[in-house]
TrEMBL record:
E.C. number: 2.1.1.44
Top-level enzyme category: transferase
Molecular-function GO terms, alphabetical: L-histidine N(alpha)-methyltransferase activity
InterPro entries recorded: EgtD, EgtD_Methyltrsf_superfamily, MeTrfase_dom, MeTrfase_EgtD-like, SAM-dependent_MTases_sf
Pfam families membership: Methyltransf_33 (PF10017)
Matches recorded under Gene3D superfamilies: Vaccinia Virus protein VP39 (3.40.50.150)
Span of the signal peptide: none
Name listed for the protein in its UniProt record: L-histidine N(Alpha)-methyltransferase
The encoding gene: egtD
Keywords: Methyltransferase, Transferase
Amino acid sequence: MESAVRFHDHHLPEVAGSLHEELLTGLTATPKYASPKFFYDRRGSELFDAICEQPEYYPTRTEEAILRAAAADIAEVVGRDATLIELGSGASRKVRLLLEALHPACYLGVDISREFLLESTHRLAADYPWLEVHAACADLTHPMRWPDGLSGERPVAFFPGSSIGNFTPEEAESFLRGLSQLLPTGGGLLIGVDLIKDRAILDAAYNDAAGVTAAFNLNLLERLRREFEAEVEPQAFRHRAFYNELDSRIEMHLVSLYDQAMHLAGERIEFTAGESLHTENSYKYSITGFCELAGRAGFEPRAHWTDRDALFCILYLER
Ligand code: AVI
């Protein structure tokens, strides 16, 4: 039987139209940068899933272990029959750990990678026939609104994976403020946040021995070629990731191996040897630091759960 997913396509033209311009702005800036959202074409989403399986990449397995252990507790605090909205839903894997306990009235998956979103929400609808499943392709860095026709008593946003860490703290605060304005009083946010820790653990997590994170980073250049018709040689760049302790963030870069030029949308973009394209920040927080940031954005912390080694934290906040 074909599983039923209600797909809300209204955000798509905006997503497609603005990407080219955004890319060029970053590539012609000094220093050069690209938003990490450009990682997530189909191949990038698959590579990210593979990163999550790497032994060095602790966030996914740690967050999943917390969700598994705390599901009943989380359900008690969050309550049943919510409208559960997963932001950046990707493979919709983590939400499965909560569905039985939370028993939401409906689920909305929101992701920038359309094909991936459709496949994963269809799988979810097939595996949970009692659940009303919706999907919306949207860019979380743009203002959002909830699609019509969602059932449930109260919206609860679920933003796992410490994806919030890929925003700067200023962006994170304004993103959370925008989200709080979309929620009624009593609406909730269940969010995964990666914690500050020993730099050796962090450096290893973004430099896995199998080279999957490197392939994920370099796939950005492949995508520029495939989708944006850029002239660029991905082999002419190398992956670099390191923990910047001062700013409590992992930085990922693509470093040019020699002097070269990339061509994109009629622009010639010069790289000198050793010059880098900054592709991602992944901010790490203390629990108090994150609660303060969320508080400034209109959220009140209600509960949090962490692992024994305090690597990762899941917080429940209310509007
Ligand atoms: C999606 N995001 C939270 C990941 C992170 O850890 O910042 C993306 C990632 N980049 C490299 N490895 C994983």
